[in-house]
């Protein structure tokens, strides 16, 4: 166990403690009001953090208990008033009682904790207590047993770094797009089949890691990620085989009427129509085909189109057209990964090289 005193020059250690006696006794004998970093990693801890830790090290800011075999952190964690970084990787956390009760409501830790790394543990779901840590800027839960991301993830408004790679996640909730400061999102090595178009609202996103998933296409809206510098897609079906799935259901009479009203700019007032029809008309989406100008509600053509991100890689992006007739005359030519359609060129013009500095496919 190494105790580092940040008031001394970098690398200066207060003591090296050998666990030949009781852990609590050893720590108590080396107590220091100046110690800011405590590393207990790569040692076997018999139980939760020992009582008295906060009293012995009141200035503690960084605590590393990675690889110690911990199955529970214990309530002593809540008494560390200045802790901003907790590293608890490669342990046995994940069962009932792994995290102390009242973690999110802790008056001191709830405000101070900024970095939390619980990768390499046994969490089957993202603990609800973590979603109350509103000051978190970095959260890592890679290589656990997660199957989903709860919509409540949007409560972590300060989050800048989210690592959930190496789990069993099958979908990305649209609520993830509500994180205004998220810059690095790692979802590699999961079972994700699609990317919600709402992710384009992550205007601060700089790096998106989606390699080794089950993606066959990307949403067209991903072009709106104006600050994205790195996009990792290797190990997905879209890289090794390009899938096109054109589907179209005939529009209902309600949709046909709605399309006519919107496309011909038929005037109406709120008093002319029932409330449900007014709400329906507000849901109209504009067809992205610049030659069409039509609208659609529920029925549309689902089409994949290849777009050049960096002048080297052509990726299939999903977009929606209001009907099969509004497709570009050259769209059939874009079935080949080496050909270009007129509409492809229009999308490529949107994407500047500096906006996609890295596209990692292989």
In short:
The chain has helices spanning 23-29, 53-56, 109-112, 237-240, 253-263, 275-281, 342-350; strands at residues 2-4, 13-16, 37-39, 62-64, 85-87, 115-117, 138-140, 161-163, 184-186, 207-209, 218-219, 230-232, 285-286, 295-296, 301-308, 314-321, 358-360. The chain is α/β, with parallel strands linked by helices and 362 residues long. Pfam families: LRR_8 (PF13855).
The helix tally amounts to 7
Helical percentage: 10-25%
Uncertain residue segments: 1-21, 329-355
Radius of gyration: 26 Å
- Shape, please? elongated
Strand content: 15-25%
What is the mean pLDDT? 81
**How many individual β-strands?**
17
Largest sheet: 12 strands, mixed
Helix/strand order: EEHEHEEHEEEEEEEHHHEEEEHE
Output the structural class.
alpha/beta
Sequence of strands across the biggest β-sheet: 2-1-3-4-5-6-7-8-9-10-12-17
Distance separating the two termini: 41 Å
Keywords: Leucine-rich repeat, Repeat
Organism: Sphenodon punctatus
Protein name: Leucine rich repeat containing 58
